[in-house]
Each structure stands twice: as structure tokens, then as C-alpha cells.
Design brief:
- It is a single chain.
- The chain is built from nine helices and 16 strands.
- The chain has helices spanning 11-14, 18-35, 47-61, 65-69, 91-97, 158-183, 214-218, 273-278, 342-350, and strands spanning 7-9, 37-41, 82-84, 109-110, 133-137, 203-209, 212-213, 222-223, 225-228, 234-239, 245-248, 256-258, 267-271, 288-290, 303-304, 307-314.
- The longest helix has 26 residues, at 158-183.
- The two termini are 33 Å apart.
Length: 354
């Protein structure tokens, strides 16, 4: 069954008058509180922008193995940069150790797990057995964790486009967070001052799910991505038309509903763990997974087609607290989440995924 997520027009907030801005903010709050997900149009990204980012997505992952391996993320709990394809950020582990603390078999793996770790050994063409891969970048202002780019002569124009894409996604995320400040009647900057442009710790990601045999998935220990929560504030997602994204049906716990895509320009937004912490569980993170398209569910064999998606993980400044904001803690009550910095929280969570 497909989930009928509300579709909201962000231009009503960015270019509208007071009444339409207020109406958008209230609807955004309601949908994110109810489902943890919403679809956004009128976000300001052109069809040309979106077509280009998907074209770059495909072109990057068509590079030779050696060209990607030289910018491989080394693993560990630091923010991801460059190419990852070796069981990085295994969502099955995040699910077992996250908000749900669910009991899952340790053998469960995302289909991205496929080749040995890259660090500390010589790479050869024989290692080119990859089942899922992604490319990550941070802000150009982030000198602590610099980006890893393919050589310009290998993929000319890629870096320039992706840096501009990052800035555009940052702007969309800022508008959405400003709308939430308004909807919750928070002081100006209550959220945005914790995720500033100068200290932006957010990450843009290109994802590629290569074709996978249904027989492997039917064995039950492999999925494209197991159910998980994202670690940041909110996540912005564009997906192709292959399908497979599902989010939890909160009215029927444990069940998942398909999040279809009417067009590639439709943005899916989900609540992540930091926003749940800030709001003291008022707005809960959206549980989601990527599985096979609905048309393959009854099949026992055959190749599930490759899938591409583009995400922006909007995150708090690394030195910002991810404890509950006082506006969300009732008088006389204790906050549900302790005061700690975003980088401390994210590193403690990501460490479980390696």
C-alpha cells in the first residue's frame, strides 16, 4: 500500500504573504508531527538542477573502481567524506542501537555490504564487487573534515556543480526550519542559530543501489537498507522512479508503507533524531527503509533494477547542544534527553555502525 503523504508548497512560505506563510508553517508542523514525513514542492530547485544532479550521480558511480577508491572514506565515526562502499553506516546496526533499540539478528546486513575494508591494504581490480555505494560531501567551510573530490580531469565539472547544489539544499533546509520556528512559536533563531551557515555540519549524499538478485533478498538477511532513523535534524530526499522507499505506518506499528514518487522534482522530507531530541519527543523521527519495489514483492527470482537517490542530511552545528530545548519541557518535568554536543552524539551513534 502506498502512503498518502501530504504535499506542501514551500513557495507559499518563501514568497507568500503572512497568512499563507502561517498556513504553510502550521501544516508542516502537523504533518511532521503526525507522520515524521512530508513531501515538498515549490522548493526553488529547478527541473534542470534536479536532472543534472541525477546525471552527475550516475556519472560518478560509473567511474572506474580505482578512480573512486582514491577518495574512499576511511571508516570510523568521523563525518563521511568521499566514496563509501564497504558496509559504511550499516543501517541494521543503527537500528539495533538507536531510539528503538530493536532486537535484530546480528547477521542482518544492508545490501551495500559487499567487499573488504579499504583502509590499510592495496586495492586491486579483483576487489571490484560492490553492492551499494554513496558519495558524501560537507560544506566548503568545513576545514576540520575536508571533502574528498575525484580529480578534475577524471570528472570535470562535478565538484563545481556539487558545491552549488549543496548551497541550494542548505537554503531549502533553512526555510523549512524557519517555518518550524514559526509553527512552534519559538524565539527567532531558536533552531536556526544551532545550524548556522558558518558552522554548517550538514552533508549532501549521492546514493547508488546496484541491481540485486531477488533470491539474495528472499533469504532474509539482506535488504537495500534496513529500517533506521537518520541522525541529523531533517533529511531532504530526491528519488528516481524505481521505488523501494518505505516509511513506518504509525497507526499500525511495525508496518511500512511505500513512499511513491510522482516526479523526480518531488522532495521527501523526514524528521531525524536531533529534531526529536530538541522537541523532547513532540516531533518524532521518521522510521524508514529501502526495500524492493512493490512490483517485485511476489517474485522469488530476477534482478531488482538499480536505484539512484540524492539526499541532504541537515545537521546541527557540531558544538550545538542536542539536549531538549526548554520550550518543550513542561514546568516541573525532566527533559527526556541529556545535554551533549551534536558531534558527541553523532559519533557515539555512528560508532555502532562500523
Amino acid at each position: 500500500m502506498r502512503m498518502a503523504l501530504a504535499t506542501l508548497d514551500l513557495s507559499l512560505f518563501t514568497a507568500g504573504h503572512h497568512d499563507t506563510q502561517e498556513a504553510f508553517a502550521v501544516e508542516l508542523r502537523r504533518e511532521l508531527t503526525r507522520h515524521g514525513f512530508v513531501k515538498i514542492v515549490g522548493h526553488g530547485l529547478s527541473n534542470e538542477d534536479i536532472n543534472q544532479v541525477f546525471a552527475w550521480n550516475k556519472e560518478f558511480f560509473q567511474l572506474g573502481y580505482e578512480d573512486k577508491a582514491v577518495i574512499a572514506h576511511p571508516g570510523g565515526s568521523d563525518p563521511q567524506r568521499g566514496w563509501s562502499a564497504v558496509g559504511k553506516e550499516n543501517a541494521a546496526s543503527l537500528y539495533r542501537t538507536g531510539f528503538l533499540k530493536a532486537k535484530m539478528a546480528s547477521a542482518l546486513k544492508d545490501s551495500r555490504v559487499g567487499i573488504p575494508r579499504l583502509v590499510g591494504r592495496v586495492l586491486t581490480g579483483a576487489d571490484n564487487v560492490v553492492e551499494q555505494e554513496h558519495f558524501d560531501q560537507g560544506s566548503t567551510k568545513d576545514l576540520r573534515y575536508p571533502n574528498r573530490w575525484p580529480y578534475e580531469n577524471v570528472l570535470p565539472g562535478f565538484r563545481e556543480f556539487m558545491e552549488l547544489w549543496y548551497d541550494k539544499m542548505e537554503a531549502v533546509a533553512s526555510h523549512l526550519m524557519a517555518a518550524l520556528e514559526r509553527a512552534f512559536r519559538l524565539p527567532s533563531g531558536a533552531l536556526l542559530d544551532r545550524m548556522t551557515h558558518e558552522k554548517n555540519a550538514s552533508e549532501a549524499r549521492l546514493l547508488h543501489y546496484p541491481a540485486i538478485d531477488m533470491a539474495e533478498i528472499k533469504q532474509g538477511a539482506v535488504s537495500r537498507i534496513w529500517p533506521h532513523f537518520d541522525l541529523g535534524v531533517i533529511t531532504l530526499l530526491f528519488q528516481d522512479g524505481v521505488g523501494g522507499l518505505e516509511c513506518e505506518d504509525r497507526e499500525n506499528s511495525g508496518n511500512f508503507l511505500s513512499v511513491g514518487s510522482n516526479s523526480r522534482s518531488e522532495m521527501v522530507v523526514n524528521v531525524s533524531e536531533t529534531l526529536q531530541r530538541w522537541t523532547n519527543d513532540t516531533v518524532r523521527a521518521g522510521l524508514h527503509r529501502v526495500t524492493v519495489p512493490k512490483s517485485f514483492e511476489e517474485r522469488d527470482s530476477g534482478m531488482v533494477p538499480e536505484r539512484f537517490s540524492v539526499t541532504y542530511f541537515c545537521k546541527a552545528n557540531r558544538d550545538a547542544s542536542v539536549g531538549a530545548l526548554p520550550e518543550f519541557v513542561p514546568s516541573g518535568s525532566k527533559a527526556k534527553y541529556e545535554d551533549m554536543t551534536a558531534i558527541e552524539y553523532h559519533q557515539s551513534r555512528l560508532q555502532s555502525a562500523y
